[in-house]
Amino acid sequence: MPGRHRVLSTSRLHPDAEDLLRQTCDYEVAPDERPDTLRRAVVEADALIVRTKLPADIFDHARRLSACVRHGVGLDFVPLEAATRAGIPVANLPSANTQAVVEHVVGSIIVVARGLHALANAFAETGWSSRIGHSGMELQGRTLGVVGCGRIGRGVARAMQAAFGMRVLGFGRELDPAGDIEPTPLDRLFAASDAITLHLPATPETRHIVDARLLGSMKPGAVFINASRGELVDSTALAAALREGRIRGAAVDVFDREPPPGDHPLRTAPNAFLTPHVAGLTDDSARRMSVGAAEESLRILRGERPLSLVNPEVWHAFLRRRQHERTT
């Protein structure tokens, strides 16, 4: 239909979101997620919904693009500086999968603290005798270290305080010393915590922020959780800590290479509870993220400011450009 906007998604959305887009737009899904495919597919798109990592030069091929919306929170999938240079508004969904990730992390702490992942595997292989010698750590009254105290980190802290009365140490910006999370330097947090969970973005400054030195400072019976970004952790050092029994165990949902290759050091590390980047994926969050991404795309295409605009410096120039296009 002439005049209809074209919306491209890098992969399928929830059916409710696809139905919403089709009401007013021509909606399509990229045939696959390879960089060359995405470069070709974006040429005629007015809006792009991002569910996979974009090539760095994607916006050089997006001659019509007016909106780029991240299906989720993390912006490492989007070359944000390039989008800003091109004057393309970028939005994300900072709260859409918060509860899903909080619940995944809480569950992971319990699983690793009690050794349930290893026990389940042993029970399947050897039967009832697998219970002999099994033990685990109770969490009541112990110390939780939260590295990155945004929505998810604070959500995990509240849940563990409410359920187990845990003391919570926090490393991050703008923590209130009078609040329920005690602001703590990173070194002391790692040394004092019985369970540590990461909730930082992936940036050049945070790459391998968790290294062999920090892992070596952890309590011997502590557990380590990463459902944030794989680049935050030196995977070789974490695998060594697990192999040498220096920590109780680790739950890892994100990897420095995704999917992790067969020879990735964590694939064979003992006491590692590994999941394939699914912390934010539930039936509820999948619908929230897809519908939210569709709604943000439509807002921008209508010339309305999105709810979560991550490069606001482009907005006024974007509106002026749209107005010029309508009058010429």
UniProtKB/TrEMBL annotation:
Signal peptide: none annotated. GO terms for molecular function: NAD binding; oxidoreductase activity, acting on the CH-OH group of donors, NAD or NADP as acceptor. Keywords: NAD, Oxidoreductase. Pfam families: 2-Hacid_dh (PF00389), 2-Hacid_dh_C (PF02826). The keyword Ligase does not apply. Residues 107-279 form the D-isomer specific 2-hydroxyacid dehydrogenase NAD-binding domain. Residues 7-311 form the D-isomer specific 2-hydroxyacid dehydrogenase catalytic domain. The keyword Phosphoprotein does not apply. PROSITE patterns: D_2_HYDROXYACID_DH_2, D_2_HYDROXYACID_DH_3. Belongs to the D-isomer specific 2-hydroxyacid dehydrogenase family. This is Hydroxyacid dehydrogenase. The lineage of its organism: Bacteria, Pseudomonadati, Pseudomonadota, Alphaproteobacteria, Rhodospirillales.
